[in-house]
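hey
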C-alpha cells in the first residue's frame, strides 16, 4: 500500500463520501482514480466539460421540442384559418342563393347561381389564404422537413 497526500478539504470530502457510501477511504480513492484513468479524463477539467456537454445537450433537446411545437402550431392554425374562411364564404354565398331564390326568376337561374357560388366560395377561400402570409407559415414547415 502506498500513501498519497491530499489537501485538507479533499481529505474531508473523501471521508464524508466514503462513509456515506459505506466504503473505506482507500476503496473510495481507488475507485475515483480508476474512474478518471479508465476514461482518460483530466479530473481538474472533467467536471466543467461534463457540465458544458450536459447543458449543450439540454439546449439542443429544448430547441428540438420548441421547433416541433412551432410546426404543430403552424399546421393547426393554417387548417383552422382555412376552415374558417371556407365557412364564411359558404355562409355569404348561401345568403346570396336565398336572396336570388326569393327573386321572381327561380328555376334555371338557381343552377347558374349554384355554380357561380361554388366558384365564389373557392375564390373567397383562396383570397383569404392569400391575404395571410402563407409563405411565412409554410416556410417553417419546409425548413423543418
Amino acid at each position: 500500500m502506498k500513501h498519497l497526500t491530499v489537501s485538507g478539504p479533499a481529505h474531508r470530502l473523501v471521508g464524508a463520501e466514503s462513509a456515506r457510501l459505506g466504503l473505506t477511504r482507500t476503496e473510495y480513492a481507488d475507485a475515483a482514480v480508476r474512474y478518471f484513468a479508465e476514461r482518460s479524463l483530466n479530473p481538474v477539467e472533467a467536471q466543467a466539460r461534463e457540465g458544458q456537454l450536459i447543458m449543450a445537450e439540454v439546449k439542443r433537446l429544448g430547441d428540438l421540442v420548441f421547433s416541433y411545437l412551432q410546426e404543430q402550431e403552424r399546421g393547426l392554425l393554417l387548417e383552422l384559418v382555412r376552415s374558417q374562411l371556407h365557412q364564411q364564404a359558404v355562409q355569404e354565398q348561401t345568403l346570396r342563393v336565398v336572396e336570388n331564390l326569393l327573386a321572381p326568376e327561380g328555376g334555371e337561374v338557381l343552377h347558374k347561381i349554384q355554380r357561380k357560388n361554388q366558384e365564389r366560395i373557392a375564390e373567397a377561400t383562396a383570397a383569404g389564404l392569400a391575404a395571410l402570409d402563407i409563405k411565412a407559415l409554410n416556410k417553417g414547415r419546409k425548413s423543418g422537413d
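The radius of gyration is 35 Å. Helices lie at 8-21, 25-38, 43-102, 107-131, 134-144.
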